[in-house]
Amino acid sequence: MTRIDHVRARQILDSRGNPTVEAEVTLESGAIGRAAVPSGASTGAHEAVELRDGGEAYGGKAVTKAVANASGEIADAVRGLDASDQEALDRRLIELDGTPNKGRLGANAILAVSLANAKAAAAEAGISLFRHLGGGQATTLPVPMMNVINGGVHAANSIDLQEFMVVPVGASTFAQALQIGAETYHSLQKVLTEEGFATAVGDEGGFAPDLPSSEAVIETILNAAERAGHGDQVAIALDPASSEFFSDGVYRFEGREASPEEMAEFWVHLVDRFPIVSIEDGNAEDDWDGWQATTEKLGDRIQLVGDDVFVTNPARLQVGIDRGVANSILVKVNQIGTLTETIEAVRLAQRHGYSAVMSHRSGETEDATIADLAVALGTGQIKTGAPARTDRVAKYNQLVRIEEELGARATYPGWAAFPRARHVL
Predict the structure, then answer these.
(1) Average pLDDT for runs of 10 along the chain of length 425
(2) Whole-model pTM above 0.85?
(3) Which three-class secondary structure string do you get for the chain?
(4) Which of the residues 332, 341, 344, 403 is marked catalytic?
(5) Which residue is catalytic, options 204, 280, 285, 344?
(6) What is the dihedral of CA 152, 156, 158, 161, to 10 degrees?
(7) What pLDDT does 5 receive?
């Protein structure tokens, strides 16, 4: 009864109004799993390929070819497979595509079926997705990294660095962390309004004011946290997305130019001055020397997260481990294209003492799968935007439900999620 009966896919819209793929997997028992695929704006060059149509429809971004692949060739290939054997299904999908980046069938088509299959298997078992994937050991709620000020390619403003996040490390439960984050977010809106800045929001729900510098952004966020009564409970995380302003061996941002070594010194300057616990993509995706310089200077002080450099790919992560680069990996399911490979990347990181941060994309849907994955894999951290916009809040609300389901067994790591950075507050 757990064998796959049929697969159906459709084209839906993501949070930016662009098409994406949603798939449904139905088992012989009648159990159904449904999953939608997110899409990034600042995408790494080494990511799995999302298949788009080109042409005129939706400005070339339609996904009808990927939908046809999911409903056709993929559906035919997986019909009759046991949905409870996720790895066998995912290996079948990888072999079927036959390319190193899933470019033939499309990572969006493959991932939609992979995730929908896991949900169908959980539905058949009558348990939550996090329990299906993580078993009885899945009890750790993640610390949220809430993107409250957007810049870079996520917003049309003066800020070159992409994300400035509040991290409620001082909370004792996820529900309390969500409250601290939301109250700081609303306080920030008031502070920005009082200072005459616009409070329009970017792709991930954060505000997009024309503040003059990174330092000014961080100071404004900390002021808002203090005014909300959470000054001693909130730390800062950054995602500069530095691949976006790196070319010809030089970083160009905020009216300055920096070599890889100087970029590392800039991060040291910010860490010395502010309560920063994590920096993601402080160097560009192929700037391995810069990554090593930053890791040497800050790797024992804060979390250094590799996103574009690792792209949730176990092979690229292993290169980073071997070269002593970063100490954490960002986990985005659509960067690699199957659930099994995502789990492999997380487990590889954890075996080598790297932390893992489950993450959304800037183009999201109401699908909350990553909330369950964060708990199932015990990542202890999740990055899924501001506490605003349904596409972001859906993940936070799912974590509230999971915490309630776990009851007294639920744990919230707080500071323990950032063991290198306890000194910052």
Answers:
(1) 96 97 98 95 76 97 98 98 98 97 97 98 98 98 96 67 96 98 98 94 90 93 98 96 94 93 97 97 95 97 96 95 97 96 98 98 96 98 97 98 98 95 67
(2) yes
(3) CCEEEEEEEEEEECCCCCEEEEEEEEECCCCEEEEECCECCCCCCCCCCCCCCCCCHHHHCCCHHHHHHHHHHHHHHHCCCECCCHHHHHHHHHHHHCCCCCCCCCHHHHHHHHHHHHHHHHHHHCCCHHHHHHHHHCCECCEEEEEEEECHHHCCCCCCCCEEEEECCCCCCHHHHHHHHHHHHHHHHHHHHHCCCCCCECCCCCECCCCCCHHHHHHHHHHHHHHCCCCCCCEEEEECCHHHHEECCEEEECCEEECHHHHHHHHHHHHHHCCEEEEECCCCCCCHHHHHHHHHHHCCCCEEEECCCCCCCHHHHHHHHHHCCCCEEEECHHHHCCHHHHHHHHHHHHHCCCEEEEECCCECCCCCHHHHHHHHCCCCEEECCCCCCHHHHHHHHHHHHHHHHHHHHCECCHHHHCCCCHHHC
(4) 332
(5) 204
(6) -10
(7) 98
Q: Which two tokens stand for residue 224?
A: 């808002």
The whole-angstrom separation of Cα 351 and Cα 264 is 27
* Backbone region of residue 311 per phi and psi (left: phi > 0; alpha: psi in -120 to 50; beta: other values): left
Cβ(41)–Cβ(14) below 8 Å: no
- Cα separation, 238 vs 250, whole angstroms: 20
Q: Give me the pLDDT at residue 425, please.
A: 58
73 is catalytic: no
Q: Encoding tokens for residue 179?
A: 């409250």
Instruction: Dig out the tokens for 236 from the structure.
Output: 């800062």
Q: What are the angstrom distances between the C-alpha of 105 and each of 14, 18, 95?
A: 20, 19, 11
Q: How far apart are CA 267 and CA 43, in angstroms?
A: 22
Name residue, tokens 């061996």: 249
Per the CB < 8 A criterion, the answer to whether 277 and 380 are in contact is no
Residue 204 catalytic?
yes
Q: Checking DSSP bridges between strand 246-247 and strand 250-253, what pairing results, if any? A: antiparallel
